[in-house]
């Protein structure tokens, strides 16, 4: 098989994989019902609470059957203040949430010592698992950003699904076990698609979400997130561009294997360009991959 035919087959297989793995309409409806039920129960305790989805299920980059990530937000608490809840305050709020949800949901696990404490729930009626935490603004911004990238260029979703599936099949998609998280792989792809080595040229995070982090109320922030900036695409953009999915997927692996300087540079989708490790981190290490979190700038997503 020639190179051109191999790339075309890669395109066809990637698009087919997306169609196979993405959640169907019924699953999306069920997950929305779970969110609404959690919010309904919690409002008996906190009338101003809003339960908002975040993560891959909401961004459109999650596989069918993946857990629902839900954040607890309070309309009468400033967004910044909510993000600064201490671990003890978050645990106390989640203890109360467990009391409100017990009976309707099964509390499978309460992870108190995580960086973000979380309760793992099971809905026996709808057969859906969900993780509930006290949400922060970064979770909403991050989800909206990835959803935006997936909507602005239709090649992004099949590429994300192909790379995440590739990593999952090899058991290298779990940061708990010392490998890169699915989120990390997604950031690697976005950064590649921002580079001069890809024809897509996605915008930087800064250009997409500037001014959003100054919002103080959850309702105002959500309203702004519904109207992200438009990205100018060529007037000829259409179905034919999907033919480049295979070439972009191959280019992704070539970029990180042969072109990106992992020893000296940091992946930064916030700026859309590589950063110097010595400038970015106080104790840089040349032997590992480094990925700047686009919103928690002091957090390295890729400490491998």
UniProtKB/TrEMBL annotation:
* Start and end residues of each Poly(A) RNA polymerase mitochondrial-like central palm domain: 13-151
Q: Could you cite one Gene Ontology molecular function of this protein? A: nucleotidyltransferase activity
Metal-binding is among the record's keywords: yes
Q: What is its main location?
A: cytoplasm
Xref: SUPFAM superfamilies: Nucleotidyltransferase, PAP/OAS1 substrate-binding domain
**What is one Pfam family matched by this protein?**
PAP_assoc
- Keyword tRNA processing in the entry? The reply is no
Q: Which GO terms describe its cellular component?
A: cytoplasm
Q: Which GO terms describe its biological process?
A: RNA 3'-end processing
What cofactor does this protein call for? Answer: Mg(2+); Mn(2+)
Q: Which residues form the PAP-associated domain?
A: 244-299
The alphabetized UniProt keywords are:
Cytoplasm, Magnesium, Metal-binding, Transferase
Q: Where in the cell is it found?
A: Cytoplasm
PANTHER family, A to Z: POLY A POLYMERASE CID PAP -RELATED, POLY(A) RNA POLYMERASE GLD2
Q: What is this protein called?
A: Uncharacterized protein
């Amino acid at each position: 098989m020639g190179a051109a035919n191999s790339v075309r087959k890669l395109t066809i297989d990637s698009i087919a994989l997306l169609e196979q793995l993405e959640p169907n309409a019924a699953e999306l409806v069920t997950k929305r019902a779970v969110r609404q039920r959690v919010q309904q129960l919690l409002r008996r305790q906190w009338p101003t609470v809003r339960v908002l989805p975040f993560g891959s299920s909401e961004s459109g980059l999650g596989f069918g059957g993946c857990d629902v990530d839900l954040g607890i937000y309070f309309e009468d608490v400033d967004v910044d203040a909510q993000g600064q809840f201490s671990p003890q305050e978050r645990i106390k709020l989640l203890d109360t949430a467990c009391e409100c949800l017990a009976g309707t949901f099964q509390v499978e696990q309460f992870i108190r010592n995580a960086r973000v404490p979380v309760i793992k729930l099971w809905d026996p009626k709808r057969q859906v698992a969900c993780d509930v935490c006290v949400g922060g603004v970064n979770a909403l911004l991050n989800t909206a950003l990835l959803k935006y990238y997936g909507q602005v260029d239709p090649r992004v979703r099949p590429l994300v699904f192909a790379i995440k599936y590739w990593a999952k099949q090899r058991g290298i998609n779990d940061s708990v076990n010392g490998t890169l998280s699915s989120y990390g792989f997604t950031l690697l792809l976005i950064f590649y698609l921002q580079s001069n080595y890809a024809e897509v040229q996605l915008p930087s995070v800064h250009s997409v979400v500037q001014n959003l982090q100054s919002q103080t109320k959850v309702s105002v922030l959500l309203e702004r997130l519904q109207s992200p900036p438009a990205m100018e695409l060529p007037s000829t953009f259409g179905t034919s561009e999907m033919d480049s999915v295979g070439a972009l997927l191959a280019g992704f692996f070539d970029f990180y294997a042969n072109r990106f300087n992992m020893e000296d540079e940091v992946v930064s989708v916030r700026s859309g360009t590589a950063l110097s490790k010595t400038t970015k981190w106080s104790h840089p290490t040349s032997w590992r991959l480094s990925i700047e979190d686009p919103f928690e700038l002091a957090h390295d997503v890729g400490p491998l």
